[in-house]
Amino acid sequence: MIGSLLLMTNIASAAALNKVDPLDYSGPAWSPYLVGALIGVLSWLTFYFSNKPLGASSQYATVAGMLGRLVARKHTDSLKYYQDNPPKINWGMALVVGLVIGAFVAAWTGGEFAPQLLPEMWVDRFGAGSHILRGVVAFSGGLLMAFGARLAGGCTSGHGISGTMQLSVGSWIAAAGFFIGGIATASILYAI
Q1: 50 Cβ neighbours under 8 A, 6+ residues apart
Q2: What does residue 28 show for φ and ψ, rounded to 5 degrees?
């Protein structure tokens, strides 16, 4: 709660410092100030109604458990994790589906919806016929992200939003790592 208030105060301060009205933002897509404040409110509501932090990475394990039950039910049910966390459709699954729908709505209404399989930067580096390579790279990146999130005990929303809001030291360290990793990766991608 204190972290969320700090986040919203920082958003308001940044908006005031830059003389930007969050409700009258002229930049691309949605105002980051308004969206940041709305994420803070969503986090409050999530804690209030479900008594759980906002997070999405545990849904990878939930989906894996559902698939495991289809293929090897006895083995899946014997695993300690699934005994403690039975794989079923829950509020977290609704959150993940809502994230996908929300991303589409934000891109569509923000004028940034670009239905293309290969981004321009990708085509410049690997050519227009690299659809399979793009799919392999995207899938591999997703697997690594899912593995890393489960290994770290949370994803960017779990640590970066809910954890920092609760002033968790581990989450602040993880959030710093997200930014450092993102900056390093972007530097490599855009320097090539």
Answers
A1: 91
A2: -70, 150
